[in-house]
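Weekly puzzle thread! Below is a chain. First person to post its structure in token form gets bragging rights.
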Amino acid sequence: MPGLPLARARLGGLSQGGVELNIRPDDLHGLEIQTLLQEHLSHMRAISPPDSVHALDLARLRRPDIRFWTAWNGNDLLGCGALKRLGEHDGEIKSMRTAARHQRRGVGRAVLSHIVAHAQADGVQRLWLETGSTDHFAPARRLYAEYGFQPCGPFADYREDPHSAFMRLDLRPLTPAKHA
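Winning reply:
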């Protein structure tokens, strides 16, 4: 996207002194990202009932309404995430995943920040997401809550599901209150 450079961040904990993280658009044709996404789908299917798995496969992630990014340190894939447009002013976070060996080191936070910045630049006013409601997904829900996402009901084509937690972030600029 013009105007927004590739994201670069310095993360602590990945190695002594930290490591540089580069977030860039991805066409989903590389073996590394295909492997990470297959691990993601397999893991979601292993821990969630079949009707509660909302992770997208490669074909569904390659749709024109989805923008996909990967986070790298050199040739090492650290994580990924996507923005799916849900209309003119709405977007959905999809396929947030950090490689197992890099979890709890700030990769997810960096990818989320990158997606939110691109959503704002694209005019998205409301950003939605669906994640799991079980303890396994507690770290993800904490990350989203720390970023300002609030619990909400189902959106788009989702339905109430005891295994799903829905969240929303309002990206509209605050307007000052008018005094009478």
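Puzzle host: Confirmed. Bonus trivia for everyone else. The chain has a mean pLDDT of 87.
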